[in-house]
Design a protein that fits this description.
Elements (H helix, E strand, L loop, with lengths): L1 H10 L118 E6 L13 E14 L2 E4 L8 E2 L8 E3 L5 E3 L4 E6 L15 H4 L5 E7 L4 E5 L11 E15 L2 E4 L8 E2 L7 E5 L4 E2 L5 E4 L21 H8 L2 E7 L7 E5 L2 E4 L5
Antiparallel strand pairs: 1-8, 2-3, 2-4, 2-7, 2-8, 5-6, 7-13, 9-16, 10-11, 10-12, 10-15, 10-16, 13-14, 17-18
Length: 377
Amino acid sequence: KQWYQRRVAITAGDFGEKGQPNYEAGEDGLNGTDGADGADGHPGLPGASGNKGEAGAPGAPGDEGITGDQGPDGNPGNPGEKGNSGVNGIHGDQGPKGGEGKEGKFGDDGDAGACGCTVRTTGKCNCDTHIFVVHSQTDAIPECPSNHLAVWSGYSLLSLTAGFVVTEQDLGDTGSCVERFDIMAMMACQGNDVCRQAVRTERSYWLVNSDLEDPPLKPMADIDSITPYISRCVACMGTQAPIVKHSTDVAAPVCDPGWSELWTGFSYIMGKSGKMGMGQQLKSVGSCHETMSNPMFIECNGRGTCSFFTNNIDFWLARNPDLLQPGMWGMGSVYNGVDDIKDRGVARCVVCLKTPYAEGQVFQLGGGRYYMNAAPE
């Protein structure tokens, strides 16, 4: 009552200043009464699995099952070990006589027999075989030199080309004389077992018949019209190999003693078509031609035509009469017309063959001995 009265007296007066905060906890209040029961909660989450229990006691044996079906056959077993050899049987009766057997192989060669002839002491013969080709540069088949056998005749092939690959033929060798003229007798084969003929840029080049004047400017497609322009050739067989000599002097070369002349001619080096050249070795008789013509060859292509092209060029060995100025050979020299070229410009050549039975000349070597030629008895 005293506190309340004092408060009433205070409230009747002016408000005092705000007191300072007190941060100390007050005394605990009295315990409240128990609250009412709460509502039922939601079901809890499943608990973790318990530990595995101990194994139970073995059960009583079950009844015997029924018999199952028969299983598949097993894999073959490994071969057994080889058994012991049996006892030898008794000899059988002799069989009937067999039929005639096949012919046996040839036996070894026997020893060399005697010569059976009288050996000449004055000289030996030459049994070698040499084949060279002669080109007529006409439509007539040429004749072989004396003491030579004509093996076959044909047409004068100078070269075959594919693209920029050239296979020139030595005009003195057998590959330059083919028995049958064909505009394009070449085909290209690939690795897939497929071959194609005359579908690429293949070309063939042939020596021409110089007897025909004014060659046509247009391509020729008829083989019967083309064939007369192709030079003929013959392959000749003899016992000695011919040689060729070239001279750049005014005078034509001559054969040396012990050698005989087969023919004389003009020194041909090569033909050129576009960027491709078809050269001849000057050691070959194919570089010495009896006739000089311009042009020397005709060009045939895979399209089935043959033509004389004005930009095709022939190269010949040149003559030089002035040996005192070797650095000025042919400088500024121009020759007009075939006759002028033959008389003053082109070099000459000769084909020579060793004279048979030239006394005192070495003819053949063999057996470590030199054999001298001698006329047959």
